[in-house]
Amino acid sequence: MPSPATSVPPHVLLIEDDADARASLADILELDGYIVEQAGSIAAALVDRDWTQLVAIITDRRLPDGHADARLQQFKSLAPDAAIIVVTGYRDLEGAIACLQQGAEDYLIKPVNPDALRLSLRRIVERRRTMLELQASRQRLQALFNSAIDVILLLDNDARIIEANPAVATLLGYPPAALAGKSLGDLLNADDRRAFATEWKQFLGNGAATMELLLNRRDGTPVAVDYRAVAHIVPGLHMGIARDLSERRRLERQVLDVSASEQQRIGRDLHDGLGQELTGIAFLADVLRQKLARLNRPEAADAAEITQLVNQTIDHARALVRGLCPVVTDADGLMSALEELAEVIHTTHRVACRFLCEEPVLVNDPNVAAQAYFIAREAVNNAVKHARARHITLRLKKQGDRAVLSVQDDGVGIIESPAAGRGMQIMPYRARMIAGSLDIASTTGKGTAVTLTFNAKGLADAK
Q1: Pick from 243, 191, 192, 188: which is nearest to 217 by CA?
Q2: What does the pLDDT read at residue 463?
Q3: 60 within 8 A of 16, measured Cβ to Cβ
Q4: 3-class DSSP state for residue 169?
């Protein structure tokens, strides 16, 4: 019986010059649900018909107007999806085998066994159904591949690009065909390219990878992408998906700018509002103390204590302002803020903390300077609160057209804790916001080194 998954009853072309044998076979096939088209000769078989509906052509090898052998290729060209079954006599096995070698699917011996015919057709119909499903699946996958917004790359074992979807033209400016045969490493910037061979071997071993890459567009400009890859989707074939991070970076930068502006506003309000009011209260309290002292009143001591408490509150308010606005807008603000951070840590926590900067490193962009400072502060706080460090060194220097900020401690290493975990997650985020790279190296019992290398756009030459 035809497969129930076949939506249209399958058509079979039956070519047999013996009318009785043809009618008998047609009855068997029709009872099984096939639509049978009949012909008594090759000429009759070649009349106009819809060859695309045929799943099988059953033909006697010897017909009045010739042998089927000579027409097999013609039948296959007319009905490429139809299987050909040759019917022959016992004394014609060599001819049947020759037909199989020319593309026939099966052969049956006369008189035809109905069960053998059914089995042969069932295999043919099932294979056609599977083929159609595979074609439909391939078309769906191709449509997804072609319409995907993200770049999809198919790569071989040597990281050469086998195929790229049309989205690559939007992201990188290359026609998909232009990337065929190129190495993925050719699209990376110089820094990433040097480590690519090692990372590719690790990827093949691990089976998957998730990372941020800086790819080069066709015009040479860089673009940051979120790259996710899966190895061995089939043997020797690997898939990578690259998503443009430009818009996300813009929005993240906008959020940070708004946050920084709001922090500065709050800091100014504390300094200009609450700070001035507290200063006035401290002045009045001290005046009151002086008056009471001249009158030899015991309440003068209480007034002095009030003055002291208000002055302490002023110091706390100033510390809050420094925390909200740690870096002044001058180009040397980062150096000043890091130096003050080292002094505060040394004084407050009794930890040997020092700041080293052999030559001025001026940063014109206040946001770049602020994010670099916050990374350093988080690293220092982790060293003091979680790693129990006794010595901390902050170092700021130029390295070509970039700046390098490092924090080295002698603590116990990175300690897994919710508080420390949140800080460690925020630090790479801040680094990305200023187009920087962050490296965190930690050895248990031997301390931690946090190194930030950030973009030269925020740098200015020292005058």
Answers
A1: 188
A2: 42
A3: yes
A4: helix
